[in-house]
Amino acid sequence: MRDKVTKRWSTYEPFFIALGERKIADIVITNHAILRYNDRIGPGNSHFDAIASMLWECLKQGRVAPYYRNEQDVYLIDGDIVMVAEFAELPGETDLEGYPLYKMIVVTFLGKMSETMELRDLKSYYSWLRHSRRTTLMKNSRKRR
């Protein structure tokens, strides 16, 4: 994403975009994230380039925000799409002031809040999910005995 040429001659997009305290210079999308994007969000045949350019545009326009104030893992795109991302420092890469640049690793897309009501409160959803899995495991272990 760093060296993407714009439509005018000899002009380039900024090579990093600030997201919170981090300056994002690259986007990595896992295969799992591509599958989840195609299943839950976009058209069924989106590929890496389409998803990465959409994310880059959203970052440039400030349409990506943290889901919770102090969380650094879960992000909202356009206030609707829930995305899980991790960050890794790019070795040897800094901005003009000497601060490190990061790559954003998109782990998965959880879905759209407008379509999946459970995504509106992730903490209670995941606690319910853990509880239901635990009870299912306990029931299955009783059946085996």
Q: What features would you describe in this structure?
A:
The chain has a 6-stranded mixed β-sheet with strand order 1-2-6-5-4-3. The radius of gyration is 19 Å and the shape is globular. It starts with 16 loop residues before the first strand and ends with a helix. It has helices at 31-40, 48-60, 122-144, and strands at 17-19, 22-29, 64-66, 74-77, 81-94, 100-112. The chain is of the alpha+beta class and 145 residues long.
Strand order, sheet with most strands? 1-2-6-5-4-3
Please give the largest β-sheet: 6 strands, mixed
Strand content: 25-35%
Written as H for each helix and E for each strand, in order along the chain, the element string is EEHHEEEEH
CA-atom Rg in angstroms? 19 Å
Q: Which structural class do you get from the secondary structure elements? A: alpha+beta
Spans of 5+ residues with little confidence (pLDDT < 50)? 2-7
Distance between the termini: 56 Å
